From TrEMBL, chains A, B:
Keywords: Magnesium, Metal-binding, Transferase. The keyword Calcium does not apply. One of its GO terms (biological process) is isoprenoid biosynthetic process. The keyword Magnesium applies. It comes from the Archaea. Pfam families: polyprenyl_synt. Belongs to the FPP/GGPP synthase family. One of its GO terms (molecular function) is metal ion binding. It comes from Methanohalophilus portucalensis FDF-1. Its cofactor is Mg(2+). This is Farnesyl-diphosphate synthase /geranylgeranyl-diphosphate synthase.
Length: 321, 321
């Protein structure tokens, strides 16, 4: 079975379970708002990492499904609140929640997903001690995501941001949730503390790699695949790792923060970034995090689930969109 | 020791523990925002109910202190997000968080308090099974608070709201957190399921009574005690139980929703509400919830803590501000 099929098999289960664990209760309009993003589908990479991690340590994938749903709901909660904060009005090609339900509705839908996620986890049929470990990890992870988002909002107001600060930001904002996905799966799958910690590092490091690669995609992926205009990060003056490395190394990007930059101007900036070595630097950094992350799996015995985790990691950093 | 001293003794412990469990970490400005409301003090009624409930079932008050702090943080999180949604710019006589840190900052500070609360609970030194019960209860409670706030926001847009709908709203928005406070204290204090459930009902019912009484205070308490202009709920056209009962019973309140109503107009509305029996109806309802709530404590053996819980309940519904 190839990777897409493996992912599809699990995302179908997650889709069904979302309907079960997040029913349209009273007040219906609130619950419709909470289901808006989860129902829009997606690859469900985080739930897949959680389920495969459970399998890879010898556990059962089906029994961790509620935790996989909880993780996906936490992810969706962060997207909803981030979109309010970043004033992003489009998400997955649809109007963002705060466009459809207003700021108050979007804040509440996010808060509801947040608490539902912890409800679902805490009511799972599993060893209380393990579940409590998962609650502690997930709540810590949510705090870190808030810290990361705070830094991200703060960076937009600042002129200079160091690469280290940027890496700290994406680590908190994005990669810790992949770490938590892998570790929750490992804990519930019955892994030792040592293995569970290694799984966390696998998720965290490949998550950083994934986020760095995301910035490259925006620049080099053809528009027909990207689904939006190429170079939008540059036009918005977004402080990505690419932009920071260029700015900090004297590579002048005329189109940076220029909302009406032409495609020719973007192309010439990309050429400059290739020539100056910025893109090579960023690609190498993404590759290094990827390799370090995959190496963490050496602690595991070989299994189809382990192979699929490696494939997911590779896919995350080779995908074009 | 009188009630104020009993409360003070416990609020001092809670104040100290907030500093311990919510230190000013990196990013400092985020954590300063999270500490802004908790540091403004307050009577800490909810933490007191939690600690006293633990004592009243034979448990130890000090060991449940982290849970008391978590509950207070959840309460503060709801205040911060509510103020954004309700566009209330003043809280406890100070600028609201979203005035000081912007909407993005206030959303994030609230989200951080939310996850910190679950971090604190899940890392407590107590029986995992009990802690997991507390996490399940608190996450369910947070979902209900979101449901209640959703209804509250929705009511402001509607012409007609039934008394039953109003009661459902305040039950979810306010009283379930008192219920959770009492039950978490009882669970961690070692109560049986039956006693813990009764404690929940004590908190829930007296919480409803408290919220109903809150609306009376706005009308009848002298301004110098209230600290704001009397009758502000009427001027704002707020759908309180008083307003709903009057509207649904043909009592015409000329000053309802009239932002510039004079004090004379407010006084004449209050007189009408007295004559028509609306205030008597609302006071009786508050009294009935209070009595029902206090009766739930009959299951407990007599103790100083039980007496203090009764005093708190009476205080909540006799206080003038």
């Amino acid at each position: 079975m190839d990777l897409i099929d493996e992912l599809k098999k699990r995302s179908t289960l997650v889709d069904e379970s979302i309907q079960e664990f997040l029913p349209i209760d009273h007040p219906e309009e609130l619950y419709r708002a909470t289901r808006y993003l989860p129902d829009a589908g997606g690859k469900r990479l985080r739930p897949a990492v959680l389920m495969l991690s459970a399998e890879a340590v010898g556990g059962d994938s089906d029994s961790v499904l509620p935790a996989a749903v909880a993780l996906e709901l936490i992810h969706n909660f962060t997207l909803i609140h981030d979109d309010i904060m970043d004033r992003d009005d489009i998400r997955r090609g649809m109007p963002a929640l705060h466009v459809k339900w207003g700021t108050a509705g979007a804040i509440l839908a996010g808060d509801t997903l947040y608490s539902r996620a912890f409800e679902i986890i805490s009511k799972m049929d599993a060893d209380p001690q393990k579940l409590l470990k998962c609650v502690a990890l997930l709540s810590r992870t949510c705090t870190e995501i808030c810290e990361g988002q705070w830094l991200d909002v703060d960076f937009e107001k600042r002129d200079i941001v160091d690469v280290d600060e940027y890496l700290e930001m994406i680590e908190n904002k994005t990669s810790v949730l992949y770490g938590a996905a892998a570790k929750v799966g490992a804990i519930l799958g019955g892994a030792s503390d040592e293995v569970a910690d290694a799984m966390y590092e696998f998720g965290r490091l490949t998550g950083i790699s994934f986020q760095i690669h995301d910035d490259v995609i925006d620049l080099v992926t053809p528009e027909e695949i990207l689904g939006k205009s190429r170079g939008s990060d540059l036009r918005e003056g977004k402080k990505t790792l690419i932009a920071l490395h260029a700015l900090n190394n004297g590579v002048e990007l005329e189109c940076f923060g220029k909302a009406d930059a032409t495609q020719d101007e973007i192309d010439s900036a990309v050429a400059k970034l290739e020539e100056s070595g910025t893109l090579a630097y960023v690609r190498e950094m993404a590759d290094n995090y990827l390799e370090d992350g995959k190496n963490k799996l050496n602690l595991l015995e070989d299994s189809p689930a382990k192979d699929t985790l490696v494939e997911i990691a590779d896919y995350m950093v080779s995908r074009e969109y």
